[in-house]
């Protein structure tokens, strides 16, 4: 089995601005590649360029091949033909009025006409449209039913991107060792935590980052963290009824599990990953013996946007985009933490990131976590975007070594200590599915949620700060600053120094 068949699906989480090479095969889109041939092409791109796979850089044949292998589901990003700098202006547009509505209506009418002309049949709404529009972002989710339609629309000036939205390298969905879990630890090592009043467990990983010392001046008060992930378990009371007096907790669900229904399945975790990440960032300080989060007085917006850690299905890309819009519009949210991603770029998710970023949110994203034999790959999407803050995990000690399942690379901004060098099974502790006994979690997922908590501690020292001011304070308090590593960014953020 080719390695790419596992790679994109084993990644537990996250296009550069440089010029990209065109991913070509032949000019004719009518003869689709087999799944194995397409997977081989993707793997070759990843290995030779060390960049995420962007469908915009692929030939019509490559894109059509992916469409034929994924029910022809596509996403079309549009704009008026003369519109410029959309990534910087996407939060200002009104898609239901003016030239935006005119452009949208013309594209829909032409898509219908082209499909009928080339297939010989008029498509029904059910055949042509995959999902309703959100009324905020200029995106259409459609089915491309003929290769000629693909070729024609990819070259229209109003079309920003037209890409497969539901392609995965393999039918079976794999999860990595830092993906779905949430079980309490069977044997919690006493050296992996210490207890503070009134009886909470503090992870051993907090000390190397100066978090306990930072708590003397900041606990994250009046700062909102949004965790976009697999949701939170309702039976974990520390993320429910006992979250803490005076704190705001909002649990939402935007993930739509069924292709035939627009209904979501609610905010409840069915994977465990989202619960773990929320626990690291913002679990309360209690006397129950459970683990405490980094920003234990911050507000929390926990959104179920994916079924697991990989943003590979169209419904997961849609969910992440919808969650980013919610976070972007929420005045009480300053920080967004995303311990999810893929090796494939997504225009849908990009637009969501642009939107939330332009509304002043600090978006932290995991650089990537995989099994050790696939961690040769660099930073994944959306951590590879300039608009996100990419985080990965490292082992204790020097020189820096990435944790054994973590990715690193030039896009990494910060690292967090996540693993004992002498024992790679000893990672950070966090909330488990229920009760007070913590579980273990590691990888760049955990590093990202931990760093999101540190950002909240820094922001809470002066809630009127801008994202750029907070980020600069984090950089200045990092272990490698003013230098920057080609693999580990500015290094470990010292929360004690950053909050002074």
From TrEMBL:
Biological process annotations from GO: proteolysis
Domain Peptidase S8/S53: 220-491
PROSITE patterns xref list: PROKAR_LIPOPROTEIN (PS51257), SUBTILASE (PS51892)
A Pfam cross-reference name: Peptidase_S8
Active-site residues annotated for this sequence: 229 (charge relay system), 273 (charge relay system), 445 (charge relay system)
Signal peptide: 1-17
Entry's Gene Ontology molecular function annotations: serine-type endopeptidase activity
Name used for this protein in its record: Subtilisin family serine protease
InterPro entries, per the entry: Peptidase_S8/S53_dom, Peptidase_S8/S53_dom_sf, Peptidase_S8_subtilisin-like, Peptidase_S8_subtilisin-rel
Keywords assigned by UniProt, alphabetized: Hydrolase, Protease, Serine protease, Signal
Domain of life (superkingdom): Bacteria
Regions crossing the membrane: none
Family of this protein: Belongs to the peptidase S8 family.
């Amino acid at each position: 089995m080719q390695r790419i068949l596992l790679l994109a699906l084993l990644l537990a989480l996250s296009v550069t601005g440089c010029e990209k090479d065109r991913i070509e095969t032949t000019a004719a889109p009518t003869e689709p590649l087999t799944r194995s041939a397409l997977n081989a092409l993707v793997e070759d791109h990843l290995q030779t360029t060390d960049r995420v796979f962007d469908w915009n850089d692929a030939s019509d044949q490559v894109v059509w091949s992916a469409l034929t292998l994924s029910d022809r589901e596509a996403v079309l990003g549009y704009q008026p033909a003369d519109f410029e700098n959309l990534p910087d202006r996407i939060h200002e547009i009104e898609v239901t009025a003016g030239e935006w509505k005119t452009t949208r209506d013309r594209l829909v009418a032409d898509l219908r006409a082209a499909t009928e002309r080339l297939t010989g049949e008029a498509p029904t709404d059910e055949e042509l449209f995959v999902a309703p529009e959100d009324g905020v972002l200029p995106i259409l989710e459609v089915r491309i039913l003929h290769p000629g339609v693909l070729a024609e629309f990819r070259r229209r000036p109003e079309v920003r991107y037209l890409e497969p939205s539901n392609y995965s390298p393999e039918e079976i969905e794999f999860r990595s060792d830092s993906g779905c879990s949430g079980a309490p630890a069977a044997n919690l090592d006493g050296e992996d935590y210490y207890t503070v009043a009134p009886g909470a467990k503090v992870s051993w990983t907090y000390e190397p980052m100066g978090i306990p010392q930072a708590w003397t001046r900041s606990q994250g008060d009046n700062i909102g963290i949004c965790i976009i992930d697999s949701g939170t378990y309702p039976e974990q009371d520390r993320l429910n009824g006992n979250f803490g007096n005076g704190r705001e907790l909002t649990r939402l669900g935007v993930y739509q599990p069924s292709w035939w229904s627009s209904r979501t399945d609610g905010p409840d975790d069915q994977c465990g990953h989202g619960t773990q990440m929320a626990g690291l960032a913002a679990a309360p300080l209690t006397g129950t013996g459970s683990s405490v989060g980094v920003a234990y007085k911050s507000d929390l917006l926990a959104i179920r946007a994916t079924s697991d850690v990989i943003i590979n299905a169209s419904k997961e890309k849609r969910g992440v985009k919808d969650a980013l819009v919610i976070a972007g519009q929420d005045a009480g949210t300053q920080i967004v933490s995303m311990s999810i991603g893929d090796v494939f770029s997504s225009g849908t998710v990009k637009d969501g990131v642009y939107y939330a970023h332009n509304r002043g949110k600090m978006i932290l994203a995991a650089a990537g976590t995989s099994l050790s034999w696939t961690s040769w790959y660099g930073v994944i999407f959306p951590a590879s975007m300039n608009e996100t803050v990419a985080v990965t995990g490292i082992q204790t000690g020097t020189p820096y070594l990435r944790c054994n399942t973590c990715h690193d690379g030039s896009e990494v901004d910060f690292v967090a200590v996540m693993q004992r060098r002498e024992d790679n099974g000893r990672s950070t502790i966090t909330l488990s599915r229920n009760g007070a006994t913590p579980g273990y979690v590691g990888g760049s997922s955990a590093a990202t949620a931990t760093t999101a908590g540190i950002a909240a501690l820094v922001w809470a020292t002066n809630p009127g700060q801008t994202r750029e001011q907070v980020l600069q304070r984090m950089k200045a308090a990092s272990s490698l600053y003013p230098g920057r590593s080609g693999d580990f960014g500015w290094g470990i953020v010292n929360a004690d120094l950053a909050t002074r």
